[in-house]
Amino acid sequence: MKRSIKKLPYFSVWLVIFITILSGTISIPLSTKVIAQVSRSNDAKSNQLIKAKAVTQRFFDSLIAGQFEQARKYLSPSIKEYLSASDLEPAWQEILDNNGAFVQYRRIRPTSVLDTYTVLVTANFANRISDFVVTLDGNQQITAVDFLWIGNIQAYAEEFVDALSNGKYGVARGYLAPDLKETLLPETIEQRWLEILATTGSFKRRSNSKVVESSNSNVVLVNLEFERENRSFMIIFNPLSKIVGVDFPQSPD
After folding, report:
1. Cystine design at 144: which of 41, 140, 166, 181 (Cβ 3.0–4.6 Å)?
2. 4 three-class SS
3. What are phi and psi of 32, to 5 degrees?
4. Closest CA to 141 of 201, 75, 93
5. Can you give the pTM of this predicted structure?
């Protein structure tokens, strides 16, 4: 009886070892399955990044070739509806006017966050090297293109207002900062402009503008004349000359 009691701990140890080994053999197929799933997920993500890069390059290749209707085909439906080939052409021409003729790509690098893809394009032009940030949705359609250089914010503010007043809401959206573009699609901009017109009456003309500099941001005040009253747009820019806010303060009584 005493010998049986003495042997029991050894039996318990072997039992624990056996169960541990058995558990390990059972878990091996599960681990392999998880690894396979992660591998397939990584492969799918890699394929999506390759596709985002290809779509972006085809878009720029079309612009470079002067094929603006072809370039437009790579845009998402919500952007394409508000951005015509005749809108793309002057935008690309302005880039060439500021940078010189296109020479070659230096780098096209895609990244992803959830279902959104961002492609950084660095290109050599005759006069300088410029960077572009292209955003694509989960369907690999372009939702935004940002040209990264510092420009004349007063001119940009006036061009932004001119685009609004001419119903070019896709063009107006191009002046916004990337994070603002995520929430403001062309149809949203159109709706807000029409709400303003419902209060002020029809737009008559843009009169003058001025830059108000502060420590945190630059603000451009653009004076506008409407059918029933005169108002000012307060347009706020970040250091990269992108619009981060637009206010339309009520005129004092």
Report:
1. 181
2. helix
3. -60, -40
4. 75
5. 0.72
Q: Both tokens of residue 15?
A: 């039992």
Please state, as a whole number, how many other Cβ atoms lie within 10 Å of the Cβ of residue 151: 16
3-state helix, strand, coil in the chain (%, to 5): 50, 30, 25
DSSP string, 17-48: HHHHHHHHHHHHHHHHHHHHHHHHHHHHHHHH
* Inter-residue contact 87 to 170 (CB < 8 Å): yes
Is-same-fold flag (1-149; 151-253)? Answer: yes
Q: What is the DSSP string of 45-82?
A: HHHHHHHHHHHHHHHHHHHHTT-HHHHHTTB-HHHHTT
Break the chain into its structural domains and give their ranges: 1-149, 151-253
Evaluate whether 232 touches 222 at the Cβ level (below 8 Å).
yes
φ, ψ (nearest 5 deg) of residue 51: -65, -40
**pLDDT tens-digit readout, 166-217:** 999 999 999 999 889 988 999 999 999 999 999 999 999 998 999 987 656 6
Whether 55 contacts 75, CB under 8 Å: no
CATH class of the domain at 151-253: alpha beta
Q: Which residues contact 90 (CB under 8 A, 6 or more apart)?
A: none
- Alpha-carbon separation of residue 54 from 51, 131, 132, 200, 240 (angstroms): 5, 17, 15, 46, 27
